[in-house]
Design brief:
globular; three-stranded antiparallel beta sheet; Rossmann fold; alpha/beta; six-stranded mixed beta sheet; about 240 residues; Metacaspase
């Protein structure tokens, strides 16, 4: 009798958890920069990457997103979008910052100038949401862990802010894009994973651990072991990243 009651109680908690996650809203800021004016460092696929992630999350009826492409994606506009979009999120909602473009040690290359991770973190910290994540598809993305002169310690900052960072490559690797593909290698497997490919237990909730395992394996195989996504920060392996 005791065992039956315990099973019923456990099942009830599980179902309540599913209902809570299913009702969670997603707040997304999606940035893609293919055109870097005045340089020879233009990219082919970041705009497509950002559009793909925006479309994917917009399929979720609760998703609210802001998309910034090329000249729209100035450092000031990105920070403004993060603050205005994420302040609407509740404690149990999900906030996502997706960036595809160039990175640099300690941050991101916006359309007009460098944008430090510390500024992004502070903008995200203003949200009361406890499920915060950053996806970055950028060459040498892992260098966010190697702070520049004034960028602060990105690792400690991520841990303090309870932010999950999922980066497309190690600090000494390029993030590969191929002309015959619609998205970069990382974004290709990221969107496949979020569409259900990473949901290994088929509970329709994709967790951080499930997503990492799926994306990492796919990118490493597709790149011939030349690109290795990394994930770090202070978060639970079971943190929901998508309810699909």
């Amino acid at each position: 009798m005791y065992m039956k009651a315990k099973i019923v109680f456990t099942l009830t908690l599980f179902l309540l958890g599913l209902c809570s996650m299913a009702s969670a809203k997603v707040y997304l800021v999606s940035v893609g920069i293919s055109d870097y004016p005045g340089t020879k460092q233009d990219l082919k696929l970041p705009v497509n990457d950002a559009k793909t992630i925006s479309w994917l999350y917009s399929k979720n009826s609760n998703a609210i997103y802001k998309q910034l492409l090329n000249q729209q994606a100035t450092a000031a506009n990105i920070l403004k979008a993060l603050q205005e979009t994420f302040k609407k999120a509740g404690t149990n909602d999900i906030v996502v910052f997706f960036f595809s473009g160039h990175g640099y040690p300690g941050g991101f290359s916006a359309y007009d100038k460098l944008l430090s991770y510390d500024k992004v973190r502070k903008a995200m910290a203003k949200s009361k949401c406890k499920n915060k994540m950053i996806f970055a598809d950028a060459c040498y993305a892992g260098k966010i862990r190697t702070p520049g002169k004034n960028s602060g310690n990105a690792i400690a900052a991520a841990q303090k802010a309870n932010v999950m960072l999922f980066l497309s490559s190690r600090s000494d690797e390029v993030s590969i894009e191929r002309r015959d593909m619609e998205n970069g290698f990382f974004t290709t497997y990221l969107q496949r994973g979020l569409r259900g490919g990473a949901d290994t237990n088929r509970d329709r909730i994709i967790t951080a651990k499930e997503l990492f395992n799926y994306v990492h394996a796919g990118v490493v195989k597709l790149s011939g072991d030349e690109q290795h996504p990394v994930m770090w920060g202070k978060f639970s392996d079971h943190m929901p990243v998508m309810v699909w």
